[in-house]
Each structure stands twice: as structure tokens, then as C-alpha cells.
TrEMBL record:
Belongs to the pseudouridine synthase RsuA family. Keywords: Isomerase. SUPFAM superfamilies: Pseudouridine synthase. This is Pseudouridine synthase RsuA/RluA-like domain-containing protein. GO terms for biological process: pseudouridine synthesis; rRNA processing. PANTHER family: PSEUDOURIDINE SYNTHASE FAMILY PROTEIN-RELATED, RIBOSOMAL LARGE SUBUNIT PSEUDOURIDINE SYNTHASE B. Residues 219-241 are annotated as: Disordered. The lineage of its organism: Eukaryota, Sar, Stramenopiles, Ochrophyta, Bacillariophyta. The keyword Nuclease does not apply.
């Protein structure tokens, strides 16, 4: 029998009448969506408690359906947390973004209830209780009483432990009353409406600017400019797939 086939790296090689013909395998095109998760949603799917699922809602809305994509979220946000979460059909891309060794910057805005002192800020910046150092900037304070206040802060972390920001402030005697992730690596929340998924370009970790140490001694002018222009732009308007 003259016809035979063998598996090659690029696809299947088939011999027809003694002549080799290569049939390429269908390759998965990396696709990424930036989603503005709303408070009250579970990120994952198939919840035994039947709580609202962000991923299932997106699938029902058509995200990934056109290409029959298997969707995976990049990391997690707990149920009360809002803001940016990335969804992709590329498992390797998701793992690269999640790896602590890659030090991808995750930026949050948090409203803190309690007395926030300078020495507590320094503890967060230095790292404690098993958590890596985080960059913390006070945005504004709203005085409630003499004993307590509400403070909006911006936090940058390079790891994504479960409920880490809430746990850090709880250990300092404060509570996080609202938490919004505004960026992940070079991907930004911008003005994505709550609940919506926006297609964005795939940008491998090696090409992303917002990663690495949070406390560099000095950033050169051209490096600072690159940091400012590193944001990944939307590929098209407010469409779900």
C-alpha cells in the first residue's frame, strides 16, 4: 500500500501515490479579552453553590463562541472585588502572567476603613506575614470620626495570593470596604463598562513593560516614557467576541 501517514511537528504528513503532502494542524490563535468584573460575581464556573459566574455569563454572551475557544481566566478576583480580569484561550499565556517569578504588576484602588499610619505603610512596603512587598500610595482621605477614617489608596503587587490585600490590612486592624483592580501588566481597565468584555491584543510577557521590581532606585527618562506608553489598546469598540 503506497498511501501512509505520520505525525510531524507541523502537522500530518500523508503520502498520496508516493508523493508526500503535509496537512497542517489547526493552530489556536491567542485571543485575549479585558473584562470589568462586577462585585458579587464568582470568577470561575460550575459553582456547587450556584452563585453568579462571570465566566459562564461571558460565554452565554458569546465570548469565544465564534472560534470555539476554551476560556481561561488569568488569576482570580474574589466575589466582592471589582475591576480588570483577563480572559484568554491561551493556557500558556495565562500561566506566564500568573507566575510570581515574572513579577507582573497588578494595580488596585482600595478604600480602607481604619486609621492608616505611616509605620503601617512602611510595613506593607517592606513585606510581612508571608506577603511580598507592595507599593502603596495614599490618594485621599475622608475623615469619618476622630478615631477612624476612610482612605483611598493605590496598591501595586507582583503576586496574586488569595485575598492578599484584604488579609494584609486586616492584620493591621483595618478593613477593605471596596477593592478595584485597575491594571494587570500592560493591560488597563480604562473606561470598560461594568460587566463588559473587550477584545485586546495578545502581548507576551517578554514584551510587557509593567513587570519586575517595584522599588527601583532610579528610572531613566526613556524607561519612564516606555512605562507610560505600555498600555495595551483595545482592538475594537464595545463588542463581546
Amino acid at each position: 500500500m503506497d498511501d501512509w501517514k505520520e505525525i510531524t511537528k507541523g502537522g500530518v504528513t500523508v503520502k498520496v501515490k508516493g508523493k508526500p503532502v503535509i496537512i497542517k494542524r489547526k493552530e489556536t490563535v491567542p485571543r485575549v479579552w479585558a473584562v470589568n468584573k462586577v462585585s458579587g460575581e464568582l470568577v470561575g464556573e460550575k459553582d456547587p453553590q450556584n452563585r453568579p459566574s462571570m465566566l459562564e455569563r461571558l460565554k452565554r454572551g458569546g465570548v469565544g463562541r465564534r472560534h470555539d475557544d476554551h476560556l481561561k481566566t488569568v488569576g482570580r478576583l474574589d466575589i466582592p472585588t471589582e475591576g480588570l480580569i483577563l480572559v484568554t484561550n491561551d493556557g500558556n499565556f495565562a500561566r506566564d502572567l500568573e507566575l510570581p517569578s515574572n513579577k507582573i504588576h497588578r494595580v488596585y484602588r482600595a478604600r480602607i476603613f481604619g486609621s492608616l499610619r505611616r509605620n503601617q505603610l512602611m510595613r506593607i512596603r517592606n513585606g510581612f506575614s508571608g506577603f511580598q512587598p507592595m507599593k502603596v500610595e495614599v490618594e485621599r482621605r475622608h475623615k469619618a470620626t476622630r478615631e477612624s477614617s476612610n482612605t483611598w489608596i493605590k496598591i501595586t503587587a507582583t503576586e496574586g495570593q488569595n485575598r492578599q490585600i484584604r488579609k494584609v490590612f486586616q492584620s493591621l486592624g483595618m478593613s477593605v470596604t471596596r477593592l478595584i483592580r485597575i491594571s494587570y501588566g500592560d493591560y488597563q481597565l480604562h473606561s470598560i463598562p461594568p460587566g463588559l468584555a473587550i477584545p485586546v491584543p495578545w502581548k507576551p510577557v517578554a514584551n510587557q513593560k509593567r513587570k519586575g521590581s517595584l522599588f527601583k532606585k532610579k528610572i531613566k527618562h526613556h524607561e519612564a516614557k516606555n512605562q507610560e506608553t505600555a498600555s495595551v489598546k483595545w482592538t475594537r469598540g464595545f463588542q463581546s467576541s
